[in-house]
Write a structure and sequence with these properties.
This protein is an all-alpha fold. The chain has one domain. The protein contains 4 helices and no strands. The radius of gyration is 10 Å and the shape is globular. The relative contact order is 0.25.
Amino acid sequence: MKIGEVVIKEKFCAERDVKKALETQQKGDQRPLGEILLSRENITKDQLEKALRIQK
């Protein structure tokens, strides 16, 4: 499962936030999706860590 799917499924952020972060990646941002969401304050560090654990 991709990190974007996890954060949406867990209701950590909205699908539109993930789509915007994916657009940022497509424009050349090399950071992982979770880092982009974190930097935009769409998710917290704790939520990102939990999502990464779920993803594995």
